[in-house]
Amino acid sequence: MGYKKLGLTFNIALISTSSALYNLGFVIGTALIILYLVNLGYSPFLAGALLTFSRLLYSIAMMTTGSLSDRIGRKRPMIWGFALTALAMLAMSIMTNQSAVAILVVFIWLGLSFQSPAASAAVSEMALLGKTAIAFGWYYTSISVAKVLGQIIAGVTVQNYGYSNTLLLAGATAIGSMTLIFRYKERHHNENASLNFYEDLKHGVRIIRSERRLQYLSIALSVHAMGFFMSYTFIPLVAEVDQGLSKTAIGILLALFSVGSALALLPFAVITNKIGGLNMLTWHLALSSMTWWIYPLLNSYGIIILLMTTLGIIGAMDMPARRELMSYVSEKELGTTMGALDAISMTIGSLGALMAGALWEIGHWVPFVASVFINATGILFLLKLRR
User: Fold this and answer.
1) What is the pLDDT of residues 283-338, one digit of tens each?
2) Is the pLDDT confidence value at 270 over 80?
3) Averaged pLDDT of the chain
4) Which of 39, 142, 196, 290 has a beta carbon 3.0–4.6 Å from 20's, enabling a disulfide?
5) Alpha carbons 226 and 379: distance in angstroms, whole number
């Protein structure tokens, strides 16, 4: 069976493989980072605040890096992102100073801000006609498989070799992704274009303000991201503090989320191709609200495994649907549009970890329940988008 029948092209396969290798390194270095920060002396609140700040800068940066990729092409922003994350993790492997570590954590996420919108826009524009959701299905399946491996490796290496060696491995793995992306055959590039933070930021906001459908979508994705970070960020801490799991077990547990996602992404991408991104995204938010609150109430490891796998399957409904919907709503300047939407949703969503840290002392189950109510409001805006 040819690539085209599978909805694949050489460039999509190349972007998927290089992004998977990059995400493997990223996940090895960050899967248990909240435990690493707490071990360095951060309180759960300060650890959540640092991760919130890192994601916040990552989010704002995507508004400009997405626009940059529209002007200079996709390859260079991806290479810059790979390099920045890798070098930050390698430096972090030899640092113990809290202030220095905080700066490097920010750089890890800033690297992702260069890679993510450029890669997403490249997949969209390289997708075969009528198979955009399937192309994203392949892309996110590759990343999910990488996350499975990364989370397992993170748990095992942290348990047996410590955080420093884990970060060293993570940085070296991320560097390997650069060797692949050099073969990417770009449709357009401009050697003379440069980053203009203020103008790119204004342009991204202008695009969202000019289209009411993008405004509704940005609100729905923002509250969904906020709810997700409120719950998912603190799963490792609940697992260690309340459920008594080892770091290896926690890594396997997080990997099961990615296993469920990897298994379901392509089937959901095919379904999305038939029913549309809006329908799939609505079901995703609804099912997320039904299940997120359960995790901190469980004590049986068998049931926890089942729930995490289920959460991963539900999570697989998200990315192909939202990317297909973004490319449908805005057919021009895809990098700018995707970067702007991701920037807005992640900027607001990043507050979720901070809110969860503040609610943590009230009760460890409280952030999870609060995340459900916040997430459910996103469904209302998806219904407005439907009308």
Assistant:
1) 999 999 999 889 888 888 889 899 999 999 998 888 778 877 776 655 556 667 77
2) yes
3) 82
4) 142
5) 14
Q: How far apart are CA 183 and CA 277, in angstroms?
A: 31
Which two structure tokens, joined as six digits, stand for 297?
């109430």
Tell me how many domains the chain contains. 1
For residue 118, the enclosing domain spans 10-181+201-386
Cα separations in angstroms, 141 against 181, 186, 325, 334: 18, 23, 18, 21
Residue at 192 is within a domain: no
Lowest model confidence (mean pLDDT) among 205-214, 239-248, 321-330 = 321-330
The share of the chain scoring above pLDDT 90, in percent, equals 14
For residue 144, the domain's CATH number is 1.20.1250.20
Q: pLDDT grade, residue 192 (50/70/90)?
A: low
Neighbouring CB atoms inside 10 A of 255's CB total 25
Q: How many CB atoms lie within 10 A of CB 42?
A: 19
Residue 287: count of CB within 10 angstroms of its CB:
16
pTM as predicted = 0.71
1 is written with which tokens? 């069976």
Please tell me the distance from the alpha carbon of residue 54 to that of residue 66, in angstroms, as a whole number. Answer: 18
pLDDT reported for residue 93:
87
Q: By CB neighbour count within 10 A (0-12 exposed, 13-18 middle, 19+ buried), where does 99 fall?
A: exposed
Q: What pLDDT shows up at residue 331?
A: 56
Rounded Cα–Cα distance for residues 371 and 373 (Å)? 6
Using only the alpha carbons of the chain, give its radius of gyration.
Answer: 19
Rounded CA separation 300/293 (Å):
16
What are the helix (H) ranges across the chain? 10-30, 33-40, 44-72, 75-92, 98-126, 132-181, 197-210, 212-232, 235-241, 247-275, 277-291, 301-315, 319-329, 334-349, 351-359, 366-386
Cα dihedral sign, 177-183-186-190: positive
Q: Is pLDDT of 7 > 70?
A: no
The verdict on residue 212 lying in a domain is yes
* Residue of 358, 338, 377 whose CA lies nearest to 119: 338
Assess whether pLDDT exceeds 50 at residue 1: no
Query: What are the b/e assignments for 292-318, b being 16+ CB within 10 Å?
Result: bbbbbebeeeeebeebbbbbbbbbbbb
Asked if residue 16 belongs to a domain, the reply is yes
